[in-house]
Amino acid sequence: MTHMTIHYPNGGAYQHHAASTPHAHTTMYGGRGMTLEDELNGSNRYYLQTGRAVVHKKPTPIQIVKVDYPQRSKAVIREGYFKTPSTTDYNGIYHGYYLDFEAKETKNKASFPLKNFHQHQVDHMRACLQQDGICFVVMRFVRLERLFVYPATPLIAAWDAQAHGGRKSITLATIERDGFELTPKIQPRIPYLDGVDWLISQKVGAPRG
Amino acid sequence: MTHMTIHYPNGGAYQHHAASTPHAHTTMYGGRGMTLEDELNGSNRYYLQTGRAVVHKKPTPIQIVKVDYPQRSKAVIREGYFKTPSTTDYNGIYHGYYLDFEAKETKNKASFPLKNFHQHQVDHMRACLQQDGICFVVMRFVRLERLFVYPATPLIAAWDAQAHGGRKSITLATIERDGFELTPKIQPRIPYLDGVDWLISQKVGAPRG
Question: What are the coiled-coil residue ranges (chains A, B) (predicted)?
């Protein structure tokens, strides 16, 4: 098992991707196995190196309980626990715009299940939208090999509707209609800034700070 | 010892503040000991709850090597190591502006030592400035009980000058001249958005995205 699920005190589940090991949701490019997280980290490095944007994945929050300090060697954490994050996984800046996003994938072919998201992620995206941030999800349909930038606004609407008895997933047709489909490249593998440019083009005239 | 220094593989030093325990640099308010990090986290919570801004401290990056999964209990990290961060500690969004900052304190009374900063922090602030972010340092002179928002631009200039034989600290007089002094409040304890408003007022007319 290369894909571990940590259950938070609050009952939420957190998918931890062992960074270098391929796992269940791995997609193959040229025979190499990479996770969505690996591909986004590589894309972020590319964007940073080329001066396009400064975006980083946030570290997994860990509650450190016990640390050893061996002689002449670096500190070792001997007891730690995964904490519930209070934000999405990725944020940064692109040409003056604050970017904030989550990356999710599904094996489904017809719709994207909302159970892939957690309340804290939705709450955080809502708060960032209120501050005029560019908030979205990078969604991958693994088996369809299709990638989308899906805006936070319709995602939050679907999340809220679900809480009132609405459907528990977003149909592919809806994602095709309200999202922006990404065309994977060699560099960057996930050119999500193409979707960000599309989001920004829809904001024209919106207040900026 | 309530204040641990981890030495990175690259030789840099990282100050880890045990979140809930008061330590060497603790300042006292009403008899309660709080670290600069504690106070900033509280200020960020206040700004979030009041809808002023969405700013979070980034978790400390940990390389997880070994995790135990006890029956009927949550995952325990049994071996982990501190990694060198690639960014500053704090970022977020305020009224459409990307904020990025580091928090540092000194016991000195006449100047702020540049050794409080690390190359990766300076590199990151430089990259964020190039993307038109609002980048700064919250500086505390512990013994003077004075707090400043000091812009990244003069900080980076001092850092670069040091590399070419310039002085190893920034004088208080320079910080008073080029920075914005914060007046601590009850809520938020560190009203750094006052300094951000000052920084933004100096950017008027600058390109926005």
Answer: none
Burial class (CB in 10 A: 0-12, 13-18, 19+), B15: middle
Quick one: tokens of B73?
A: 């209990």
Higher pLDDT, A51 or B27: A51
CA quadruple B165, B166, B170, B174: dihedral, nearest 10: 180
Report whether the peptide linkage leading into residue A184 is cis, meaning its omega lies within 30 degrees of zero: no
CB A62 to CB B56 under 8 A?
Answer: no
Q: Look up residue B185 and give its two tokens.
A: 């409040």
Q: B56 to chain A: which residues are within 8 Å by CB?
A: 86-87
Asked whether the ipTM of the predicted complex exceeds the cut of 0.90, the reply is no
pTM: 0.84
Six token digits for residue B189:
């304890």
Are A154 and A174 within 8 A, CB to CB?
yes
**Helix H or strand E encompassing A202:** helix A192-203
- What domains does chain B contain, in order, with CATH numbers? 5-204 (3.40.1350.10)
Question: Is residue A29 predicted with pLDDT exceeding 90?
Answer: no
The Cα–Cα gap between B28 and B38 comes to 12
Q: Do B75 and A61 touch (CB under 8 A)?
A: no
Give B9→chain A minimum CA distance, Å: 8
SS3 A13: strand
What is Dmax (Cα atoms) for chain B?
60
CA angle, residues B113, B116, B112, in degrees to nearest 5: 25
Residues 6+ apart with CB under 8 A from B179: B139, B148, B149, B150, B151, B195
- Which of A82-86, A149-153, B12-16 comes out lowest in average pLDDT? B12-16
